[in-house]
């Protein structure tokens, strides 16, 4: 038995297309409103001993409780840090700068280092925290 297909009367139902488009629009609007940012509690590490990270291109500034600053584990003052960061910025501007502060360090000591970086306009800066 041979089946006959009549292709002349084939019609795509367009009545529900507007409903589907409306539901798709609502779905996209709802998904775009979701905030994917997660709030993380930061716990700063103790700065008793300077250790280098595994990255090749980085510079570490350590700040202890008393406000003493260390550049890659060597004690120094803010002028030495300013000179080192300035020369680093000229030679390798993509080098990441790590600021590692003790948990009990007053923010004023960290802010002194940040003022130097702001003056130089150094933008590749990370605050190192304990992995939770």
Supply the key terms.
132 residues; 3 helices; single chain; alpha/beta; five-stranded mixed sheet; Nucleotidyltransferase, domain 5; 5 strands; rod-shaped
Describe this structure in words.
This protein has a five-stranded mixed beta sheet. The protein has a domain at 58-127: 2-Layer Sandwich (Nucleotidyltransferase, domain 5). 9% of the residues are buried. With 132 residues, it is of the alpha/beta class. The chain contains three helices and five strands, in the order αβββαβαβ. It has helices at 17-33, 78-91, 107-120; strands at residues 58-63, 69-71, 74-76, 96-101, 125-127. Helix 2 (78-91) packs parallel to helix 3. Helix content is 34%, strand content 16%. A hairpin with a 5-residue loop joins strand 1 (58-63) and strand 2. The chain is rod-shaped.
- Helix percent band: 25-40%
Alpha-carbon distance between the two ends: 72 Å
Order of helices and strands: HEEEHEHE
Low-confidence stretches: 37-43
- Mean pLDDT, to the nearest integer, reads 76
CATH class of the domain at 58-127: Alpha Beta
Number of strands: 5
Evaluate the radius of gyration.
29 Å
Strand adjacency order, main sheet: 3-2-1-4-5
Task: Write a short abstract of this structure.
The protein has 132 residues and is of the alpha/beta class. It contains three helices and five strands. A five-stranded mixed sheet has the order 3-2-1-4-5.
């Amino acid at each position: 038995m041979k089946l006959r297909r009549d292709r002349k009367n084939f019609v795509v139902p367009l009545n529900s297309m507007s409903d589907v488009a409306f539901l798709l629009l609502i779905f996209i609007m709802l998904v775009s409103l979701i905030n994917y940012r997660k709030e993380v509690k930061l716990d700063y590490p103790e700065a008793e001993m300077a250790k280098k990270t595994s990255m090749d291109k980085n510079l570490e500034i350590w700040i202890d409780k008393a406000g003493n600053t260390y550049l890659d584990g060597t004690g120094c003052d803010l002028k030495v840090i300013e000179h080192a960061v300035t020369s680093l910025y000229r030679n390798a501007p993509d080098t990441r700068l790590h600021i590692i502060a003790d948990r009990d360090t007053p923010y004023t000591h960290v802010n002194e280092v940040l003022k130097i970086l702001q003056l130089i306009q150094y933008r590749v800066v990370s605050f190192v925290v304990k992995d939770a």
